[in-house]
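pasting for ref
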Amino acid sequence: MGASQQQPIVYVVAGPTASGKTAISVALAQALGTAVISADSRQCYTEMQIGTARPTDAEQGGVPHYFIGSHSVTEELSAARYEELALGYLSQIFATNSTAVVCGGTGLYIKALGQGLDPMPTVPAHIVAATEEAYQQQGLTWLQQTVATEDPLFAATSEIQNPARLLRALSFVRATGTSITAYRSQTPVQRPFRIIKVGLDWPRDVLYNRINQRVDNMIAAGLIDEVRTLLPYKHLKPMRTVGYDEIFRYLDGEWTLPQAIEKIKQHTRNYAKRQLTWFRADADMTWLPANAPHIVQEILALAEKK
C-alpha cells in the first residue's frame, strides 16, 4: 500500500443546490463513524436557516457537523477564512478518525480547502466605495451587465445573482486589471490528506423540479417571517443571497409574493446551472447518480480505486 493510501481521507460530496447532498453526506459519515464539515457559504450563518435549507438536528442524524449555524451574519466570511477554519476542523476530526466528510455546493470553498488560495492584491478602499455607490444608484441589472463586460470569465462561472460577489469581482478587476478568478489557486498546495470528490448528478428536469419544490417548502416553513426578522441586517453582504433578496423586495412592495417566489425559483435554477459549470470543470470529480440505491458503498469503493 502506497504512502498516499496511509493518509487520512476527506470525502467531498458536492453538486448543485437541491441535489440531496446533506442526506448522502450524513449516511456516508454514519457509515464511517465520522463528522461532516459544511462547504456552504450561507448555511454557516445562525440567523439564516430556512432560506439556506440548513439541515435540522433531525436531518443531521446524530452526526457531528462543523460550519453549520456557527457564525453570525454580522461576521463577514471569505474563502480564505473558510480554508483556515476547515483545516482546523479537519485537525480535530483526524485526532480520532482517519476519515472526514465535506458537504456543500460552494465551489470556491471546496477548492480553497483542497488546493489553497493564492495571495490576493488589496483593492483600494476608494475603488470599493465607488463601485458600491454605482451599484446603489443603478441596481443589480447594471452590476451584472458591467461585470459581464469587464470580467466575462467571472460572469460565466460564478454566482451572478449575488451582488456582494459581483461587487468584489468588479472592484478587483478595476483595481488590478485581472479577473479575480485568476486567484482561484493557480499553485495548488499539497495537503496531508487524500481527497475523493463526488458530484451528485440528476437529469436537469428532475433537478429543476426538486428546486421548485424546495422553494415551495421554504415558503411553507416560514421563509417570509425569517426574512422579516432579518430586516435590520438587510445591508449586510450575507443578505444579498437568493431567497432573501427576493423576499426583501416583496416586503419593500417592489414585487408581489407570487412574483418573488417565481424569482427565487428562477434564480436558484440559474445558480444550480453555474454550480454545475464549476464542478464539471473539475477533472477530479467523480459523478454518480444521486438516486443510486447503493451510493454510499459506491463512494467508499472509490477509495480503493484512486
